[in-house]
Description:
- The chain is α+β, with helices and mostly antiparallel strands.
- The chain has 2 domains: 31-79 and 195-307, 3-Layer(bba) Sandwich (FAD/NAD(P)-binding domain), CATH 3.50.50.60; 82-193, D-Amino Acid Oxidase, Chain A, domain 2 (2-Layer Sandwich), CATH 3.30.9.
- Helices cover 33% and strands 22% of the residues.
- The protein is built from 10 helices and 12 strands.
- A 6-stranded antiparallel beta sheet has the order 6-7-8-5-10-9. A 3-stranded antiparallel beta sheet has the order 1-2-3. Strands 4-12-11 form a 3-stranded mixed beta sheet, sandwiched between helices.
- A hairpin with a 6-residue loop joins β6 and β7.
- Bound molecules: flavin-adenine dinucleotide.
- Residues 35-36, 62-64, 68, 87, 89, 141, 189, 209-211, 217, 220-224, 226 line the site of flavin-adenine dinucleotide (FAD).
- Residues 54-266 form the FAD-binding domain.
Amino acid sequence: MGINCLRTDIHNELKHLAMDEDGAGPPARLHLGQEVVLCDPVEGKLTMKNGEIHDADLIVGSDGIHSVIRTSVLGYEQKALSTGISTFRCLFDAAKLENLPDMEWFTDGPLTFIRRVTSPEQRLGVLGLHPCRCGKVINVVAHHTDERDQDKHEWSEIATVEEVVEQLKHFHPRYLNFLKLGEQPIVRWQLRALPLLPTWINGRTALLGDAAHATLPTLGQGAAMAFEDAATIGCLIPMGTHREDIPARLEAYQSLRKARGELVNRESLEQATIPSKRGLWFRSRELRTVIHGYDAVEITKKYFKDHFEGAT
Ligand SMILES: Cc1cc2nc3c(=O)[nH]c(=O)nc-3n(C[C@H](O)[C@H](O)[C@H](O)COP(=O)(O)OP(=O)(O)OC[C@H]3O[C@@H](n4cnc5c(N)ncnc54)[C@H](O)[C@@H]3O)c2cc1C
């Protein structure tokens, strides 16, 4: 069974863990509104939009699907490619479900389980209702074939309820009733994927999360992989690591993480775009075991012990 968390809740918890005075180690400092425009990955220099230049022993490019650091690591710009798939997302308060007709398919049973309805048609149509905060808030996602020229549109746009209903009109009306409850903004996100990259590292700089392996949310593993990447870097580069040791630690990071990130990247894309593979994530216990049965911290600690113990 999966546990659903709202992004804001995860961010708040991460901030608390990283920045609280009584946490492990010195509290991290967060500088908001600071845009990186350039990076020298080998020397470890970051140039900010305001002209400041910062020196670093280690640069972790966790700047998402549109990563600037990725361009510096690769030496060329690699955009995430359009897939012809988009998704609508919105939230609503679960209390509003009371007294709404034809919602038994959703409200019968615990309000903590994901409900997922797929379209029987060849075109992609997936409607997911994900209860969060113990069933108090419902997160709605609706993946659909996007017949627009995606490159001519913004990657995320505000959508109207009418546009959503038009896209989902092939679903039985009982699955669409909750749309009356959706709270603005409803956002239409283009779902894009990065091709596999030749490298995730360069000198003292590494890519992490979507910057390295942005893909579709078919397996629901994008953020999970970013957490695993981060845990791996954390275990390989503990406090006190010498500057000159960083490049070798990042080689280790790449050898531990790249194949796994790429597996999730490719499967997420193929299971959305190849009709015979649709739904494989839910049918294949083997694949779910490969993904869920992996302990990035334990594996990295063992790797560290075998390769670097005593070196720090
Ligand atoms: C519709 C949808 C549904 C999803 N569902 C799931 C799911 O169910 N489960 C799951 O695990 N994943 C899911 N994902 C994927 C998940 O959201 C991403 O994989 C995850 O957010 C990646 O985290 P990240 O830290 O790498 O990047 P991001 O979350 O994109 O964070 C990047 C950060 O870098 C900052 N930044 C960007 N450029 C710069 C710059 N130049 N200078 C300074 N800062 C910069 C941004 O402001 C942002 O704060 C979904 C994604 C989408 C689009």
